[in-house]
Amino acid sequence: MTIRKCVTLASMLFISPATFATNLLDIVHTAEVKNSRFAALRVERAIANQAPDIARASLLPQIVLTASTSTANLQQDPIKFAPGVPAVGGDTAYDSTEWGGRVVQPLFNWGAFQQYQVAKIQRSYEQALADAKAQDLYFNIADAYFNVLRAQDSLSIAKSRLASLAKRLEEAQAKYASGFVSQVDILEQESQRDAAASQVLTAEDQLNSQRETLSALVGEPTTELATLRTDIPVLLPTPNSVDAWGKLAIEQNPNLLASLLGIEQSKASKSALKAEYLPQINFFASYSDRNLKGSDSAAVALNSGTTDVVGVEARWEIFSGGATHARVKRAGLQTNLALQNHESDAKIIENQARALFQTAKTDAYRIKAKQRSLSSSELAYRAIEAGYSAGTHSIVDVMSSETKVNTARVELATARYDYVMNCFRLYQIIGLLNESAITRINGWLVAN
């Protein structure tokens, strides 16, 4: 191996950590493990899964075992049946041991069956709410991630401007010593340099704040982040129809899906309440074994033994003071309320989806416009800088042109980040902000 190859390999080893910069997908996976909100969502889903099992129990056999032991004192008036026959009764004490069991199997319980249907809808409802919360978490993490990148770009531009102004000030001071520039030019450049230094401090503070926000969402401090490529695919949303996006939002938005399930749950609850007008019929079987000891009384002895009972029992509540009627009426009103709220929410979300579609389209055009603006500003800056060297432009012209270049850079970066985040918002409002969507946008990132 040649010395040059050794040096090249060593350089790659020292540079390699940057190629492992944490990207958005890594951040999301870490947050799913470390963020307690994701853990809470997993618990909420597990709790929701228990509701149908609890409700189904009312339709399955109920088995009860009982056992008891006691000491009793029996006081009876003596009864003499015939002369010469010992009297029955009197005072006696005995020990009682008893055990038994009872099995009940519902044969007809329409209310319990409807409550089971309610529980299944409730599970789906809570799962839909959990999906909506998960998408909120994914969006917040993505927003915090790209806010860090925004802050990094702002700091980089601010530092670049400060370095440029400091270098230009040194050149102007040298020219001032030779009498080629006035003191006014020096003061103007010092003012610009100091303002740029203040902007760097502000940008550093903003970057630290955004990093703390991201770390709190992830659940641990974040390392070097992969940055947004300069050549991200800036495409118009597909389908390219505002009506189509509004329809998708109505059909797939998890909050609206939860709202529809809430309506179905309310209807099923009303049916369960109506079932109180119907009888309940159960099959039952019981067995008991009673053993009484410690007494010679015939009355006590006759109460010992086993009992087997098998039968069908019915319970029908004919009138409960009007409570059932009132509860059914209230359930109907609650269903109507849920329906009205759903229609209102659907209109709001549809309008949001339509507005986001238009904004995303505008972002795509805006990025191209900002790219052209930056190119023009850079060309103008180079021309004015050449003019300054030739003596046809003043330092004020140069600094003004340089400010326009930096402004164009900031505006282009802002447009690119706005486009990315509005893509996330579109995914979220149609219920598709999941790992697949995050993976797609994660492909727009590159390690520094």
TrEMBL record:
Localization, UniProt: Cell outer membrane
Keyword field contains Glycosyltransferase: no
N-terminal signal peptide: 1-21
Gene3D superfamilies from the UniProt entry: Outer membrane efflux proteins (OEP) (1.20.1600.10)
Keywords in alphabetical order: Cell outer membrane, Membrane, Signal, Transmembrane, Transmembrane beta strand, Transport
Family label: Belongs to the outer membrane factor (OMF) (TC 1.B.17) family.
Protein name per UniProt: TolC family outer membrane protein
Biological source species: Paraperlucidibaca wandonensis
Source organism phylogeny: Bacteria, Pseudomonadati, Pseudomonadota, Gammaproteobacteria, Moraxellales
